[in-house]
Design goal:
Length: 121
């Protein structure tokens, strides 16, 4: 009933920038919260950043000052601008969303398919 589609991953050299997008579609009444998680090779998935539908944000300490999350409510899309990338940012990045669905007012929680970000030194 709701789908999340990510785009924008790829390879970049250290110090470079990438922008990820995650578009939600389907039976959406409102977006409660969207965010990005990442899973480095051989490690557990970790929180990177979140944003509420009202624009309140949180960031992991490791990305503060380098990453910026933003949301376009009209497009049901969240963006992650990543600057000053480091090799340790290499991971699969997953979009996550908490959405109130249209018609029934239920809460939907789900993940995107993941997009690879590789930062070379």
């Amino acid at each position: 009933q709701v789908q999340l589609v990510e785009s924008g991953g790829g390879g970049v050299q250290a110090g470079g920038s990438l922008r990820l997008s995650c578009a939600a579609s389907g039976r959406i009444f409102s977006i409660n919260d969207m965010g990005w998680y990442r899973q480095p090779p051989g490690k557990a998935r970790e929180l990177v950043t979140t944003i509420t539908g009202g624009g309140d944000t949180t960031y992991a300490e490791s990305v503060k000052g380098r990453f910026t999350i933003s949301i376009d409510i009209a497009k049901n899309t969240v963006y992650l601008q990543m600057n000053s990338l480091k090799p340790e940012d290499t991971a699969v990045y997953y979009c996550n969303a908490l959405i109130t669905t249209a018609g029934d007012g239920e809460t939907w929680h789900g993940w995107g398919q993941g997009t690879q970000v590789t930062v070379s030194s």
